[in-house]
Amino acid sequence: MFGLGNPGRRYAGTFHNAGFLALDLLAVTCGIRLRSSGEAEVGVGTVEGVTVLLGKPRTYMNRSGRAVAPVYGRFAGSPEDLVVLHDDLDLGLGVVRLKRGGGMGGHNGLRSLEEELGTRDFLRVRIGIGRPPGGVDPADFVLRPVPEEVRERFQGGISSAAEAVAEILREGFDRTMTRWNGRRAAPPP
Fold first, then answer.
1. Residues near 27 by Cβ (< 8 Å), separated by ≥ 6?
2. Angstrom distance (rounded) from CA 70 to CA 22
3. Is residue 62 part of a domain?
4. In this model, does residue 188 exceed pLDDT 80?
5. How far apart are CA 152 and CA 78, in angstroms?
6. Are 114 and 33 in contact (CB under 8 A)?
7. Does residue 186 belong to any structural domain of this protein?
């Protein structure tokens, strides 16, 4: 299970780091400590009675595949063994949806994973960050700090993503996807 984001303080509080933040929350909640290993930070522990490997690339988003590929090659038997948590512009702020494989939607981290792993069939926990305001370049938007006025909804999405991962481990991906994807999105404030 990998969360996507950019390393360093400069990017810590940005929309693009939603995957990192959700994975960090899961690691803290489950008492799993991440340690440096190659181009990733990884930790192994038990979540919902299942042994899991949690990881975060130490590369920038557009090179995520370089960090994930060695871990994937060593521990995964198939693409379905890899769950990726990431931000998604096409979902409303704080909305969480699950997806099995599919397109990259312009997400450079997902594109890098596809290039390095040779597949796009991995499982995804998509964390909605919403669309940028008119006239704002999406690339600039995702790298901006999350504004105070929407921080609570953003954090709600991070918490929901960590909750969805625990449910995946407890109930299986397909059952969890059916439940989460059937939920109504919270109305905008």
1. 33, 34, 43, 45, 54
2. 22
3. yes
4. no
5. 36
6. no
7. no
d(CA 11, CA 61): 11
How far apart are alpha carbons 65 and 89 in whole angstroms? Answer: 20
> Is 41 within a domain?
yes
At 84 the three-state DSSP class reads strand
- What tokens were used for 134? 């008119």
Domain that holds residue 165: 2-181
| Confidence (pLDDT) at 104 | 81
Please tell me the distance from the alpha carbon of residue 60 to that of residue 5, in angstroms, as a whole number. 7
For the chain, the domain total comes to: 1
CATH number at residue 170: 3.40.50.1470
- Residue 15 CB partners (closer than 8 Å, separation 6+): 87, 129, 141, 142, 143, 144, 146, 154
Residues belonging to the active site? 16
Instruction: Answer yes or no: are the C-beta atoms of 85 and 114 closer than 8 Å.
Output: no
140 burial type by CB count under 10 A (0-12 exposed, 13-18 middle, 19+ buried): exposed
pLDDT at 47: 84
Query: Would you state the pLDDT for residue 13?
Result: 92
Q: What global pTM score does this model have?
A: 0.94
Q: How far is CA 2 from CA 5, 99, 148, in A?
A: 10, 15, 27
Q: Is there a domain that residue 47 lies in? A: yes
